Amino acid sequence: MPRAGQLNWGSDLDPAGAALLEGLTVEEILLKGQLDLSYALSGPSSEQASRRFEQILQHQLAPAVKNGAQLMVQLQQEVNILPTGCSSLDELLRGGLREGHIIELTGEPASGKSQACLLAAVTTAARGERVAWLDTSTFFDAHHAAAFYHALPASPHKLPLEACLDCIHVHPVHDVLDALSILEAIVLQEQEIRAGRGPQPRQGRVGRLSLITVDSISALLGPVLGSGQYGYGQALLSSLGHLLKQAAASLSVACLTTNGVVGSSRGGPRPALGETWKVQPQIRVQMHREEGSVRWATLLASTISASKGIAWFQLTSSGPQTCNAPSGFTFQP
Amino acid sequence: MLSDLANFLTPDETFGDLLARCHSEPLALGVRFLEELVPVRASQLIEISGASGSGKTELLTQAAAAAILPKVSGLDLGRGEHAIYLDLDGKFDLIRLMQVLQGRLRAAEPEANQQGVELPDDVLRPSLQRFHLIQCHSSFDYLAALWTLRNLIPILQEAEGCQLLLLDNVAAFYWLDRICQPTPSAPPGPRADLSGQGGVLTLQSVHAAAGQMLKDLMRTHRLVCLATRHNILTSQGDADGWHYHDFMPQPWQALVRHKVLLKSVPGSWTSQGRSTLFQGINQARPDRVLTLDIGAATASAG
Lengths: 333, 302
Prior knowledge:
The structure holds 2 protein chains of 2 kinds.
Chain A: H1 15-21, H2 26-40, H3 46-61, E1 65-67, H4 68-77, E2 81-82, H5 87-92, E3 97-98, E4 102-107, H6 113-125, E5 130-135, H7 142-151, H8 161-166, E6 168-172, H9 176-194, E7 209-215, H10 217-226, H11 230-251, E8 254-259, E9 261-262, E10 270-271, H12 274-278, E11 283-289, E12 294-301, E13 311-316, E14 319-322
Parallel strand pairs in A: 4-8, 4-11, 5-6, 5-7, 7-8
Antiparallel strand pairs in A: 2-3, 9-10, 11-12, 12-13, 13-14
Chain B: H1 2-9, H2 15-22, H3 32-37, E1 45-50, H4 56-68, E2 82-87, H5 94-115, H6 124-129, E3 131-135, H7 139-159, E4 162-168, H8 174-178, H9 203-221, E5 224-230, H10 250-255, E6 256-264, E7 277-282, E8 285-293
Helix pairs in contact in B: 4-5, 7-9
InterPro entries (chain B): P-loop_NTPase (IPR027417), XRCC2 (IPR030547)
GO cellular component, one term (chain B): Rad51B-Rad51C-Rad51D-XRCC2 complex
Subcellular location (chain A): Nucleus
C-alpha cells in the first residue's frame, strides 16, 4: 500500500498539508478514523487535507459502489454462462458455469469431478476462450483432451484441435503457496491484456480468459490444515478462497474447483476442508457413483435457491455424457 | 447571581420531551421472520449467525428487497428507500434479489386488485437503482468502504431515505486478520499518536476501527444494521444445533444489540437437493423457534 504522501494529492493541497501526511501509510489513517485525523492534522490545512484524503480514498482506493441497475447491465452484457459440455450438468447448474462465481465439484474419488472439469475446459477452449488449469495431480492429459474435443458437436466457431489445446494453459502446482503466486500472476497478466498491453485478444471473446480450474483444491489445502499451526492453515485457505473470488469477480471469469469428501458422523459424506472453506464457493455440486460408469450429481449449495434435482451422466471415452436414470432409483439424501 | 442559579436549575427538557425526541418505534423491516424474532430500532445492530447454508444471506436479500420496493399505500410491498449492502463474502446474487422482488410483487397483486390499487408499471428498475452494492475483498476494502459511506449515506438520505445497512459476513477475513501481528513498537516521531498500531491490519485493530466507524454511522444517520456472521468454529457437543462459539473480538461484540441464530432444518432436503427450511431464534429468548420457508419467495413465519 502506498504511503499517504505518495498519493496523487493534486495541486489544491498546500505544502504544509502534504508535509503532514508524509510518512503515514493509508492503513494508519484508516485505522485511526476521521476524528483522529483532523485532530492530528490540526492547523489551517487540516480540513482540506482530510477532505482531499477522503476523495482520493473514494476514487482510487475504496471498492466501487454499484447500484442494482448498473449490476443488471453488467450481468446482461458482460457475464456469460459457460456450458460444461454435459447437458444434464448444465441443466442442474441452470445453463452452466456463471462467470464471476466459484463452482465446486465435490465427491468421492472416481466420481467424475476431474473429467467434468476437463470437458468444461475443452468446451470453453474450442470456442477460442482461454482456460488456466492449475493441476495438482497431473490429471491433465492431452490425449484425453483430444478425445473429448473430437466428441464435441461440430460448429463454425469450433477451433481446430491444436488451436483449442493452445488455449488451455496447464500450471502444475505442488502446494498452496505455488497456487497463490500462479493465480496472482494469471490475474495480473489478464489485467494487462485487457488494458490493451501485451498480446492482443482477437475479436469478440476469442483469446479472453474465461475459466480458471483448480483440480483439486483439497490436495492443496489438506496438508496445511493438518499441521499443528491451525490458524496459519486456515489463513492460507482463506487467502486462496478470497483470491479466487477476487479473480472471478474482477475479471469476470468462472472458477471451477474440485474437492474431496470426508465421512461424517451425521451420516453421509460431506465436502472436505471444513467450515471456513464451505463459505467460499458460490455453487457446490456433489457427485456420486452409481453402478458401472454411471454417475449422478446434486446441487448442495447455490445462491439461487430452486434447482432442477438430479443430473445423471455417464463417464465415456469422450467425456461425461448425459444418460438416463437407472430404473427403480429413488433419491435418498 | 440568583437568576443564574435559577437558570441553572431550570430543566433543559422534561422526560416527556426526551421521550418524544428519542423514542423510536420499531422499524418495520418487511421481513416478518425477523420482525417477530427481534424488535429492530434505529441505531441498532442485529447479528445473524449460523453455519454455512443456514439462510443468512437470504435474510439480508429479503430485507434489501423490502427496503427498495416502492411504497404503495394500503399494500405491504416496500418502503421505497435506499439500501446499502456490504458484501465481504461475495455471496450476493443479483438474480436472487430479482427473484425475491418479483415474488413480493406477485404476492402483493391479489391484495392490490382487491383494494383497487394500481401497482406502478415499471417497478423493478427504479427499485434496483435504490440498491447499492459494495464488494470487499480484504479488510482494507472493508475499512475504506466504511469510510466512504460517510459521504454516501447523507446523499441517499436526502434523496429517498436510507435506513438500512446490510453487512454480509463480518467474519469473512477472520483468519487472515488473525495471523497478522502488530509491529513491535511504533517509530517515535511527531505523529506517534497516529501510528500507534504501526498501520498493521490485525483482528483487533480492524474491528476496533470498523466498530467505531459503524457506531458513528449508525448513530449519526439512525441506521439499522443487519450483519451476518458465519460460524467458522463449530462447537463440540452441539446437540440441538443452537450452540455457538463467540469468536469475534470485543469491539464487534460491543456493537451487537440482538443476536439471531439460524440453522437449516434437518430433513427438509427435498428432491431439489437443497434445504429450503430454516429455523431461527433470538438468543435472548431461546425457547421461541421460528421457521423460515424460502421455498415461497417471501419469508413467512410460523
